[in-house]
Design a protein that fits this description.
By secondary structure, this protein is mainly alpha-helical. Helix content is 69%, strand content 4%. It has a two-stranded antiparallel ribbon with strand order 1-2. The protein has a two-stranded antiparallel ribbon with strand order 3-4. Strand 1 and strand 2 form a beta hairpin. Helix 2 crosses helix 12, helix 4 crosses helix 7 and helix 10 packs antiparallel against helix 12. It is globular and about 70 Å long.
Length: 313
């Protein structure tokens, strides 16, 4: 292919244009990217989608133990779950746990993250201190709370020391306080890490927004909730979804280490019920039926949180 160009003396001259790149060369980078993604896709299908499908399959089986014969149960597991009062106690406890822990954790973590984002004296040290609960293993956290809440633990000792011995209690062994202790552990272990995430996101908000609000007479409280919060509203939704999933699916380990679901069923949650029926009662069909309901609850919760925190512009 040739093109016409004009020389300095005004005469036209022909010049050969470079040949166009072949279509195969233009598509080569995209094909290479697809090939590089194949191992990750295979890993995801085998270890993520596969177990998810297995949950629905096992929920339709009568499987009384790993080495026991398997038979098709149909909807019998669903009927057994819905007729079990322990299941409804677990739903109630999980609902209370989410209704208390999630709002308290998100609101307090956002306020704490906003304070750190203002770069007060020693803000770098504060970030490290807030991150400490995230560095402690779950058994170690449980031991800390057990040492504080056991009948002869730190809390009862402190109450007796200040003349409030009548308020002492076996906090982890009392039906009225066992679930509250687990909720306190969830909040303590998650609030610092969440605050660091909020502080990192708030640090990217332009300082001019806060300065303009303060020039207009807004205080820190109004600036925090009316100026900065709308800017990072979508990020708050993402963090809320993460903490929702962690509280919904990860509470079993705290229950297992501290209360074993008791006294009675006062601290049994849905995630712990899945573990209990699978590994203690050896009823895999029942366990995975609760797992399916737990998965659906998580999906509905994620969609609800996404709708609540979506941007309005």
């Amino acid at each position: 292919m040739t093109t016409l160009t004009t020389t300095p003396d005004g005469r036209a001259a022909r010049r050969s244009a470079p040949p166009p790149a072949p279509a195969s060369a233009a598509r080569r980078p995209r094909q290479g990217g697809t090939v590089l993604a194949v191992p990750a896709l295979v890993w995801y299908l085998v270890f993520m989608v596969g177990p998810l499908l297995a949950i629905f399959v096992i929920a339709a089986l009568h499987w009384p133990g790993m080495l026991q014969p398997v038979s098709f149960a149909g909807l019998d597991n669903v009927r057994a779950v819905l007729d079990d009062p322990v299941f409804w106690d677990a739903i109630r406890n999980t609902a209370v746990q989410l209704a208390v822990a999630l709002p308290v954790m998100i609101v307090c973590a956002y306020m704490l993250g906003y304070y750190v984002a203002q770069r007060p004296p020693g803000h770098r040290v504060i970030r490290y201190l807030l991150f400490i609960p995230g560095l402690i293993s779950t058994p170690a956290k449980a031991m800390v709370f057990y040492a504080a809440l056991s009948p002869d633990g730190l809390l009862n000792g402190a109450l007796s020391g200040v003349g409030l011995g009548s308020l002492t209690d076996a906090w982890l062994a009392s039906p009225s306080t066992a679930l509250a202790c687990l909720i306190a552990l969830d909040i303590w272990s998650g609030i610092g890490f969440t605050a660091v995430l909020f502080a990192a996101r708030l640090g990217s908000v332009p300082d001019e927004l806060g300065e303009a609000a303060q020039l207009d007479g807004a205080g820190h409280w109004r600036t925090m909730w009316s100026v900065h919060f709308p800017v990072i509203r979508d990020y708050v939704g993402v963090v809320t979804m993460l903490q929702f999933l962690w509280t919904l699916f990860g509470s079993a380990q705290h229950v297992l280490l501290l209360t074993q679901g008791g006294p009675g069923t006062s601290s049994t949650t849905l995630s712990f019920l899945v573990y209990q029926k699978a590994f203690i009662a050896a009823d895999l069909g029942y366990s995975q039926t609760v797992g399916v309901l737990l998965f659906l609850a998580g999906l509905v919760g994620l969609l609800t949180i996404r709708r609540v925190f979506r941007q309005n512009y």
